[in-house]
Amino acid sequence: MSNQGVLRPGHVIIRVLDIHEAKDYYVNVLGLIETAQDANGKVYLKAWDEHDHHSIVLQEADEPGIEVMAFKVSDEATLKRLANEIENFGIKTELFAANTHLATGKRVRFTAPTGHVFELYSEKELVGNGMPVVNPGVKAPNLKGIHPNNFDHCALIGDDVEGSYKLFVNVLGFQLAERVIAGDNMIAAFLSCSNKPHDVAFIHAPVKGKLHHLSFAVDSWAHVLNAADKIAENEVPHEIGPTRHGITRGETIYFFDPSGNRNEIFSGGYLWYPDRPILTWTVDELPKALFFHERKLNETFLSVMT
Amino acid sequence: MSNQGVLRPGHVIIRVLDIHEAKDYYVNVLGLIETAQDANGKVYLKAWDEHDHHSIVLQEADEPGIEVMAFKVSDEATLKRLANEIENFGIKTELFAANTHLATGKRVRFTAPTGHVFELYSEKELVGNGMPVVNPGVKAPNLKGIHPNNFDHCALIGDDVEGSYKLFVNVLGFQLAERVIAGDNMIAAFLSCSNKPHDVAFIHAPVKGKLHHLSFAVDSWAHVLNAADKIAENEVPHEIGPTRHGITRGETIYFFDPSGNRNEIFSGGYLWYPDRPILTWTVDELPKALFFHERKLNETFLSVMT
Amino acid sequence: MSNQGVLRPGHVIIRVLDIHEAKDYYVNVLGLIETAQDANGKVYLKAWDEHDHHSIVLQEADEPGIEVMAFKVSDEATLKRLANEIENFGIKTELFAANTHLATGKRVRFTAPTGHVFELYSEKELVGNGMPVVNPGVKAPNLKGIHPNNFDHCALIGDDVEGSYKLFVNVLGFQLAERVIAGDNMIAAFLSCSNKPHDVAFIHAPVKGKLHHLSFAVDSWAHVLNAADKIAENEVPHEIGPTRHGITRGETIYFFDPSGNRNEIFSGGYLWYPDRPILTWTVDELPKALFFHERKLNETFLSVMT
Amino acid sequence: MSNQGVLRPGHVIIRVLDIHEAKDYYVNVLGLIETAQDANGKVYLKAWDEHDHHSIVLQEADEPGIEVMAFKVSDEATLKRLANEIENFGIKTELFAANTHLATGKRVRFTAPTGHVFELYSEKELVGNGMPVVNPGVKAPNLKGIHPNNFDHCALIGDDVEGSYKLFVNVLGFQLAERVIAGDNMIAAFLSCSNKPHDVAFIHAPVKGKLHHLSFAVDSWAHVLNAADKIAENEVPHEIGPTRHGITRGETIYFFDPSGNRNEIFSGGYLWYPDRPILTWTVDELPKALFFHERKLNETFLSVMT
């Protein structure tokens, strides 16, 4: 595929209740790498196999949740083009100068119909993945905790799934890989801008701008077990898993950061291509769509959000 | 990423010495699914999780090897555009009408500087992956043998790696993910048109149009073990593995089909993005680049080709 | 260790509500191999890597549950010695002639303080594991379903855990590997007659002769995933897992046969030796002892029995 | 099984050329835990999940190899009984007082027909596995390198395999699980004193007292991959693997310590019982027996010994 468009989820800014506690968790248990702390106390983190400066930013706040989800686009021309197209779609955009967000170029900010604040940018400082680019190895040394390879996607909750879906597909060039329908309504949309089965998902609830979960990728089911053991050893609140999703087929475990933001570690899932058929799950099959092994809903998965 | 361009390796036509023996191997041991046999005796096969009509075509011939590698492009406009650009690059193209290759639309054929015949097409009949598109499961029933998820890539051998590299990068929109250099010469190029670390690789030898291997993807290292056990149980000639590549980090095993064409089963590898640094291996580190665990070359891997 | 004593769980007779439905499940989903059906309609099954004639016997009845758990002992002298020692311990034994249970030698029957009927025998017809004993392979061909390697253990529920514990340790030569205590009371005892962390477990409830679960062993966590996928594909009622036990460290999933008898597929666990320290779990840590990842009890695990 | 007899391989004393280099390797790469260094410079190590004081002792010497392999027996009465029976078998024994080997009780030493020095002992100081015995976790914290669970077995090379076999089976109570025959000669014997498919193996060559390899156990094939990656990252000399053995079915990788002593990391293998049929491999099938995937011998495996 050519490189004109949105490349990937680039970073999220997450609201945490206690920055010290959050940093300890994300560095020592989840195993992300701290790359900076700014004058306002925000902590910048990356997963080990990412080359960009950061993918997770922790920001102390009175309530947990997601402040911004930002996507990296292929180049500055694309950034401009997409800003125009978002405006043409009827959504206001705001332009921020380079370095008004640490280590990052110009940013275009907008709010999607589900109430989530998104940003696009085309440049971020490269810090590398801890291995040389000439004769590298296969894993960086001295990793801690779960150390997923990369930040993978967010699932976001809001009232106008159809609206955000249209924005992402018609304007931002995402494709719908899977969806959940209740009668004529799409109550969840799994959207890809890559060969991954999703880069962002929108889930319906009568709220605005809420976070369902942040997801991090590991190599395999064996690494999901390792993650499960580590969250248990560290007394991290567990929600569900290890299990498999029907949607995306991913192997997964869910748990909560110290502020109550839901995290996922997952592996697997199929290779998405834009000409692959869209998969549809009907709401009566939602239990299987979510938790393929359990085939029943749990108490919290559809109700707890931040 | 937007969908303008080459999507993926779509199919390869493989020359086999005995079509019955080959079919038995590819269906019962490798576990591909036969979708058709044409009037000329060619056998059409797909991996279970592919939706397109076929990805491997077996054609009886006096010598093994690869007849054609074909890529699916996003749409007909792209097909025309790329045909023009290939001609502009100085390489002749030939246009074939729809259905002159079974279940496939118009095709553009050209020969790369390494002597390999490639085709582009934008349409192929969909046959599905054996599961419904509404409330699907996670795996098709009644699979046999190794049953990889999908055909993944080819490694091809020829004399003008630099030439084919330029064609694929400058014209077809591929990116260079990794390369091996000997002094100033690029002796191997691993090229991606996706988020996979390679969709095609070119390896230098003073020949034209040769095949190093066809590769099929499985979910994980546990499935590589299963493949290894199955090739042993079926007395399939083994070359090397299970092991890990330095290049791409993939977990891998190599073996040969009954005609001597090299097959690979692999899993893993990192997520490729066009802004990820190109990795370079120097020829003195080739043993590690190829076989990360063994760190030594074997007798056949660089000499046997079809 | 010398071979004087109880070798292993040899077979269990399980009560099922519908023999046809039960057989279909145990053969096609669980993947056991049918070796015989007797004149009374009882179905005899073995796991693929067992050499003995059977390890599971299905017997139609009005209520589910366990009829008999039988242990193979090393030889006939041991059988006689243990029968005497059981009598000396104050428990009556009953001797059955060879072949009064299909393909099995003389049997000594007794009822343990928890109300479970046990048998000992020293001979059973060998049918092999589907591979030759000269130049065997590593796996029998044509296996179906989950196909665990072997029947591994039972967990049994009854009122006098202390009593059955004493019988098994002081008379039958088992060792206590782990236990759960509530104050001064041992409410669960995990007993080994091998290098496995348990061959039988007793769990307290104010009942007699009840079954908690039958457990079957697979090679690894990857096979537990495969089992989980297969129980989902076959709509087998799921209880909990994939997860890890704190007790024994085993990787596990629980589900129910069509009659409601609980089955487990598990892998892993440490190597037990008689000089290894006994591990004790206090009842307040029971959630972690049972489900190391979840660290909470579910609704059914401690209440549903057959 | 009752506990009268040989329990397990307790420790080996390994000759290394440079104690500092050896200690660095066994602690930081293999991931054993140092428990003591004695006045003579010997280093005592244990695998993390062993409770005994040590299982590997490093002793500086001019040549690599194995000095002693010691088995733990169930109690002092067994120690005396076995000493007598060894003498009756016609082999001299030597008795050493408690604590003449660090942290270890009385020892009985003898030399087997293959020229290997063995010892038996019934007592060794317990140091635990790094977790409490009340409400333990599932893994000790702060482990390094490969950190196998336990030392598992040795394969030893000598001229009189039949002689050592008879000693181990007729006197020490081991069972023959598998063997390789060349015509009427048993050229390799795999002997178990447990439910593991081997605790010691004897392989024929016209030498006395040589070491083929020391083997350490990990949980699964996923951990064998981790071991393979770590030996590569640390530039440890690799021999073969990851692969599977035909003999024992174990998943395996072989490599060499800095002195040239061969090490193995393995997982899997079936559950051995004394009534399981002995498996026989004929010498023409030796390639498959050794390396089930490769099905060919390599240059070093049958020739390099220390």
UniProtKB/TrEMBL annotation, chains A, B, C, D:
Residues 8-123, 150-268 form the VOC domain. It comes from the Bacteria. It is an enzyme of class 1 (oxidoreductase). Its cofactor is Fe(2+). PROSITE patterns: EXTRADIOL_DIOXYGENAS, VOC. Its EC number is 1.13.11.2. SUPFAM superfamilies: Glyoxalase/Bleomycin resistance protein/Dihydroxybiphenyl dioxygenase (SSF54593). Keywords: Aromatic hydrocarbons catabolism, Dioxygenase, Iron, Metal-binding, Oxidoreductase, Repeat. Homotetramer. Belongs to the extradiol ring-cleavage dioxygenase family. PANTHER family: GLYOXALASE_BLEOMYCIN RESISTANCE PROTEIN_DIOXYGENASE, LYASE, PUTATIVE-RELATED-RELATED. This is Metapyrocatechase. It comes from Acinetobacter sichuanensis. The lineage of its organism: Bacteria, Pseudomonadati, Pseudomonadota, Gammaproteobacteria, Moraxellales.
